[in-house]
Amino acid sequence: MPSRLVPPPTTAYPAAVRPREDREQADRIALSAATARGSLLPTEEVRAWLAERRRANVFQVERVPFARLDEWRFERGTGNLGHSSGRFFTVEGMHVVERDGPHGDGPRREWRQPVIRQPEVGILGILAKEFDGVLHFLMQAKMEPGTPNLLQLSPTVQATRSNYTRAHRGTDVKLIEPFFRPDRDRVIVDALQSEQGSWFFHKSNRNMVVETRGEIPPLDDFCWLTLGQIAELLHVDDLINMNARTVLSCLPRPDRTPGALLSDTQLLSWFTGERSRHDVRAERVPLSSVRGWRQGAETIEHEDGRYFRIAAVSVRAGNREVVSWTQPLLEPVGVGIAAFLLREIGGVRHVLVHARAEGGCLDTVELAPTVQCTPGNYAHLPPEERPRFLDAVLGVPASRVRYQAVHSEEGGRFLNARNRYLVVEAVGADAALDPPPGYAWATPAQLGALTRHGHYLNVEARTLLACLNAMATRPREGARHDAGV
Question: Can you point out the beta strands (E) in 100-211?
Fold first, then answer.
């Protein structure tokens, strides 16, 4: 009889393999989220601590005319506003042409606008460490010139490449070393994520959470909090800054739901189809060529007074790497709204996501909230031309609101940029299982899985995902009030 063929021995096996997914890590995150009382700073003392840090430092922001900007100039020929070093960012023009349809033959939209171009990839990093067997996260009381109350809880590190290479000739960024070449066994989150595609041109930041087991020296402007504590603070207006929210949304969490309306493959197929059917072409153009916008001594603004304006500020901040500087900021006109419609399907919570095109995105569309707009920009239009589902979330009765808070957007580039974040229970036709084109029902767990990859969820959707994760934590009496710092 023929002998059985035996494969030759191999010596190429790796010394060890590991699971592709660390489920224990997700359980540790869940434990931190379930821990409402931290080992170091009680939640009820956080706002008082922030107020104390504000009193301990000098913070001042003053609007100034463009002529008082130090080292910032309007470039001859293009009119672009940039720094003399060529670093940081520039205010330029953007020309956008958008078409829908499988062959790019759908309705055409075209516009020009000012836009912030910042090609550097910054680091948004949070250090994690176990205390009494529970993960805590190192948050910083950071001053940003554009936030309404100036001081909010931010990531451990929040720095552009110009900052951490000291282009500003200031002091070193504290605690940034663990994020440069992190130990791969200590990385919990590491993803390149987008920022506002309506205001930035192709802007990305590296969102990171890295666990440390070494000693971190006590620093005045830093505190350790559990996820449960942070979740409670997410119910407070203007307290957790945008950069912290986007990083926290990326944390892995255990998924114990039995399923979803769409399988992961179906959801990705739908999203890929949405990206394919949109044709969005954006190019940088000279700021001086942007029609419909007028430049004055103190602002660049739309001729109808809508959308946003470019302004200039002079800043003093005692706890920053540079204690005084001037810079331009983008200031929205009015408070925006970002809302998820929510419903249960088969006993599983789902939210309605929108495949939204924005001119400054790297790809054609990203997953966005059900509604994302500044209502005042559409007040002059008839109802059929207003954003879909806007009326479903405006003036909604309190009995259907599952979450609401006003949060500030990135205060290093935007001035008084605030959105009212809502999670609203869908009813009637708005809760249909077969939503309109461009929309799909997805579970928070599905969205959380997508945050492991860059440029799937936009920054407003990531904030709402962080808020969804915080909904299980009920705010204490008065927690919905303004932060008061």
Answer: 108-117, 122-131, 134-143, 151-154, 157-159, 187-194, 200-201, 204-211
125-129, 157-161, 247-251, 256-260: which has the minimum mean pLDDT? 157-161
pLDDT digits (tens, 9 = 90+) for 197-215: 999 999 999 999 999 988 9
Q: Give the pTM.
A: 0.92
**Is 294 marked as a binding-site residue?**
no
Classified as helix, coil or strand, 308 is strand
Does 293 show up as a binding residue in the annotation?
yes
Q: Is 467 annotated as a binding residue?
A: no
Q: Is 198 annotated as a binding residue?
A: yes
Is residue 404 a known part of a binding site?
Answer: no
Determine if residue 361 is labeled as part of a ligand binding site. no
| Number of C-beta neighbours around residue 184 at 10 A | 7
- Give me the sign of the Cα torsion angle 438, 440, 444, 447: negative
Residue 427 is predicted with a pLDDT of 96
Mean pLDDT of 387-416: 95
What's the CATH architecture for 23-60+119-249?
A: Alpha-Beta Complex (3.90)
| 372 appears as a binding residue in the annotation | yes
Q: Where are the domains of the chain?
A: 23-60+119-249
162 belongs to an annotated ligand binding site? yes
Annotated binding residue 378: yes
Does 71 show up as a binding residue in the annotation?
no
Three-state secondary structure call for residue 200: strand
Confidence of residue 483 (pLDDT cuts 50, 70, 90): very low
Q: Does the annotation list 243 as a binding residue?
A: yes
Determine the Cα–Cα distance for residues 228 and 30; give it in Å rounded to an integer.
Answer: 9
Q: What percent of the chain has pLDDT over 70?
A: 90
Question: Is 229 within any annotated ligand binding site?
Answer: no
Note the helical H segments in 35-66. Answer: 46-55
pLDDT digits (tens, 9 = 90+) for 9-65: 555 546 678 888 888 999 999 999 999 999 899 999 999 999 999 998 888 999 999
Q: Is residue 126 over pLDDT 50? A: yes
pLDDT at 472: 72
Q: Where are the beta strands (DSSP E) in 369-472?
A: 371-373, 401-408, 418-425, 439-442
Measured between its terminal Cα atoms, the distance across the chain in Å is: 87
The response to whether 160 counts as a known ligand-binding position is yes
Tell whether residue 373 is among the known ligand binding residues.
yes
161 is in an annotated binding site: yes
Q: Which ranges in 340-433 belong to alpha helices (H)?
A: 390-393
Q: Is 164 annotated as a binding residue?
A: yes
**Residue 374 known to bind ligand:** yes
